[in-house]
Specification:
- 42% of the residues lie in helices and 21% in strands.
- It is α+β, with helices and mostly antiparallel strands and 195 residues long.
- The protein has a 5-stranded antiparallel β-sheet with strand order 1-2-3-5-4, with helices on one face.
- β2 and β3 form a beta hairpin.
- α1 packs across α2 and α2 packs antiparallel against α3.
- The protein is globular.
Length: 195
């Protein structure tokens, strides 16, 4: 499971910047970084929406039309002279009226994934992994039907999370445990450890 501290850092940054400024643009706070990636949290004005900026060194990012789009938040490439020019930047902005808690969970999850694996992959692979994870969140948020899981899905998710907790309690490295958890991808098995 992604450490709660990622979510707490993001929530604290967004609370600190709430209502700050009325000029168009974003105010940003660094959240996490590695050799080939950076994460900044902020608020985008004039609407005061939460924003997550993620930069990747040495990466070629897809065109905006090829980035994940859907309910809850939008993703776009960002070019700004105020950002480190050694990185290619993506902006992830919460949509007006969407669930702030879901957005915070998504942002904490993708930041946690970068912290666990980002420095092992290099800029291009890290960018690809980030985009895949955001796409999975977009797919989750776009599912039709009720806004909550059905009882069978809740039981299944609880079982997966309990198993993940047991794997972590067995002192399996967090990056290996989280990478092995493939249940959210609708795989045949919920966990796939490689030898």
């Amino acid at each position: 499971m992604i450490p709660r501290t990622e979510i707490e850092k993001l929530a604290a940054a967004w609370r600190a910047l709430f209502g700050e400024g009325d000029k168009p643009g974003s105010r940003l706070i660094p959240i996490a970084s590695g050799n080939a990636w950076r994460v900044l949290a902020g608020r985008h004005h004039p609407g005061n929406e939460e924003v997550l900026l993620v930069g990747f060194a040495g990466a070629q990012l897809p065109a905006d039309k090829d980035l994940p789009q859907g309910q809850g938040f939008s993703v776009s490439r960002l070019r700004s002279s105020a950002l480190d020019a050694n990185f290619q930047w993506l902006s992830v902005v919460r949509s007006v009226g969407s669930n702030a808690d879901f957005f915070t969970m998504m942002a904490g999850d993708v930041t946690g994934i970068l912290n666990l694996n980002g420095d092992l992959m290099g800029g291009q692979r890290t960018a690809s992994a980030f985009i895949q994870r955001v796409t999975a969140w977009q797919d989750f948020m776009a599912r039709e039907g009720a806004t909550r899981l059905g009882s069978e899905a809740e039981i299944g998710l609880f079982g997966e999370l309990a198993t993940l907790g047991a794997v972590l309690d067995a002192r399996v490295a967090p990056n290996i445990a989280v990478t092995a958890w493939v249940g959210p991808t609708d795989a045949l098995h919920d966990f796939a450890f490689t030898a």
